[in-house]
Design goal:
binds adenosine-5'-diphosphate, binds magnesium ion, 10% strand, 19 helices, DNA-binding, DNA replication origin binding, Chromosomal replication initiator protein DnaA, flat, alpha/beta
Length: 469
Amino acid sequence: VWNICMDLVSKSIDPLAFQTWFEPIVPLRLEKDVLTIQVPSVYFYEIIEEQYIDHVRRALHDVIGNSAKLEYSVVMDKGQKRNHNPYTLNLPTANRADLRNRAVSPGSNNDQPAIKNPFVIPGIKKLNVDPQLNADYTFENFVEGDCNRLARSASQAVAKNPGKTAFNPLFIYGNSGLGKTHLAQAIGIDVKQSMPEKTVLYVSANKFQTQYTDSIRNNSLNDFLNFYQMIDVLIMDDIQEFAGKTGTQNTFFHIFNHLQQSGKQLILTSDQAPADLQGMEERLLSRFKWGLPADLQAPDFETRVDILKHKIRKDGINVSPEVVHYLASHINHNVRELEGALISLLFLSTINRDEISLETAKSVVDKLVRKSQRELSVDFIQKTVCKYYGLDPESLQSKTRKREIVQARQIAMYFSKNLTNSSLSAIGSKIGKKDHATVLHACKTITNLIETDRDFKSQIREIESQLKC
Ligand code: ADP
Ligand code: MG
């Protein structure tokens, strides 16, 4: 019976979704009209109920009849055998609100009090999760200024009451090097200090993406999902990296919902405000907008001085106020560069056994500024690519679909993405008025070509060396 139902369902939904959510299901029994299936986790149950129940219901009605009912059984714990006292969710209807209010009893063990919240599975042990935090990224080390006051205080509020403030998710955004990672981690460190029993996890969006694809490859998606469902405070860094990655976005969406519904705290960072994020599914964006978007601005002069002084004090080095002011007034983009200057300065003064003089400071700043002036522009990349292929630089802007021009455009997009800080949409609008999806597609195409075509690869190498000289 189950197999026939699954045949029907598989015809009506996306094959990947079917593989992910239905293949792991084990049919347990059919008694009268009640079909009991075993799902690997509560998460599966939620997904099926939320997204696929109509398909399942239709199939059950077709195969068993209109009085068909479905019950789920969730495996409690890896160590337990499948049929040994499974935690049964009685689920005659597909109505989640109804389900929430229903008292659910853990299997046959009737003398235990009924459990109100079906999403809490008794018997899962708390794992000891390494939170992946950098001990230096504390609130104390995060110097306050006008540029970060709101984000900093919202973060502190979240750290005091994770999951219980209106800031869920807390969405921290700002340009590179302005302290997003630092501030997000400070929340984690603070929570771990005051509430050691909480499971905190910092993960970059890229790492999450890799873990997710690995888990699909290794057939361990369940473990992956179960792991993320356990986290009390989840810090997801640089979520703009999810752009265009639909599978990862879907999975994150469900983890996000699950955690939020269970009162867990989410902290997200991004280089764009939620409204400006490209390549994200609308339903995910609308979730991001639920909480508080808190931005980090470039620090003003006063804050730059304060940050330098803080670092100098912390590292116990001796730098004159004159040098501090020189650095703070000449390096004004971001905090990472400010730190970089300080480190170079320190390095130079130790190898030359100098005290840190204004002269040394000037030479360091000179180098840094020259380096950032050299940063490539999208225009320069376009010109260089056209020159290499003997094309008119204007041709990339034309609407033509001539192969060589389409490819030159794609190459220019590829280099712009990899060698500049421009966003995908900015690159697209500069190169032939395309959108971010076209740029993403171009980058994929070129990456594939480089991997498969040796001639092409050496052309790209040559262009790259012309760009960099
Ligand atoms: P982002 O994640 O926004 O790119 P980071 O959090 O990595 O930036 O910050 C870059 C560096 O600047 C880090 O070493 C961080 O400690 C430092 N930093 C940023 N903002 C501050 C601040 N307000 N006070 C002290 N250090 C800061
Ligand atoms: Mg960062």
